[in-house]
Task: structure prediction
Amino acid sequence: MKYQNPIIEGFYPDPSVCRVGEEYYLITSSFEYFPGIPIFNSKDLVNWEQIGHCLTNDKQLPIQNALNSYGIYAPTIRFHNGRFYVIATNVTNYYNFIVWAENPTGPWSDPVKLEEWDGIDPSLFFDDDGKVYIMGNSYKKKAETLGCYMAELDINTGKLKTERRLVCTGSGGKAPEAPHLYKKDGKYYLILAEGGTEYGHMVTVFRSDNPYGPFESYENNPVLTHRSRKHTFQGIGHMDLVEDHQGNWWGVCLGMRPKGSHAYFHNLGRETFLVPVVWTQDGWIEVGTDKMVAETYENPLMTEEQKRPGDFEDDFSTECRPKEWVYLRNPERGNYALDKSGKGFWLTGNKESLSSGGACTFIGKRQCHFECDTTTDFYVDFKNENDEAGLTAYMSDRYYYAICVKRKNNENYIVLRKKIADFDIEETAVLLEDDHVVLGIEADEKMYKFYFKDSKNKKWFIGKAECRFLASEISATFTGTILGIYVTANGNEETPKICVNNFKYGTL
Result:
């Protein structure tokens, strides 16, 4: 049975995977969004269901002041002796940490901070002699030689048992990072990402008889790359390997689907792909098709057709929020509350706005499809000048679009906002006749189109904006577009409120 790439669409980069029996678990980076590190479950490596997050409270995930594309980088998940271990970097506070759980749905432990380990992209390896190794890339602030560093680790305390050693500098590409170590047939295999997580990204492999090396570089490196090659997918790299319960090997990796005819852009972020891996007779790996990730592959594990996530809806009738929702940095819990009648969800704004770099009152989901339609309807409770709430296509505090209701001269107006770097433009002001509004964003590969609905449910389009200005190529971010609801007092101390009745996301 065939599957189609990517296997997880939208902003889900830096995938890591492990197997427990006939079950598979996958995690990705989450950057400045809360909760942190989404975790997925699958029985065939293709159909994935999000079962929760690894970091769900402020102690586990202190990112109150996270800059754009800071927060949680490149986690790795491993299973050993009945425990799941996740290791990652909190770039906002500059430390690496480990959390663990006996059940992947949680609860997950408080972080064990690795005070003696610097750098990013950490990974764990449990050897068959009982030793545990930590690896990661170089630490720029200490001007270390670029490459992969390794040490033996006490998994319970987070203390190093040996000195930090440089074991591999890569094959010559820039930014050797994301190391993962595996053992097969008595030999140690080191997988690296090189070339930077942009259009020159690639995967390389090295081999040694010892976990500390010296590591031999495969003569056919890179084993996976789309650099300088015409393909729907680009930026392929950052691979983690897993052997399935039938003895087949696979790699999960990140990639992007750029659009445009000459100047390319990708606004959905870096996504998760699955590629077959074959071991050669001389003990190396061949990955994919001609070292590339094809759009479709056969997968013998599949017993049902691939189910690609589509429509999403929240009617806010219960306290339980769908797992796809994320908040911008650590949310102020008191600003999010179910209506006592169970007929809506109250969002209370604060002085933080989408542009301020703080914890604006915001709840959103990842845009996972180029062609989609997102709507929300809510009641406004505004009393002060510049109170604002709306629906946004958000990349960062310097790059976003929003169709919103804004308080001006004691009246509420529907306004289209465009924030592009130093430009903050308000277009089209339509008087809101009452305190209820339905706002929508239609998207295709090139444009976002913004509309509202009148009392007769008729759409009124008030403007459009190019998708490419929310792309990483322009915004210089590692994330992807988030479609969400927000409310703000725009720097004032007042507390504007909205009561949200519904949020819908559907494919076109």
Notes: The chain has two domains: 2-298, 312-507. The CA atoms of residues 199 and 207 lie 26 Å apart. Residues 312-507 form a domain with the Jelly Rolls fold (CATH 2.60.120.200).
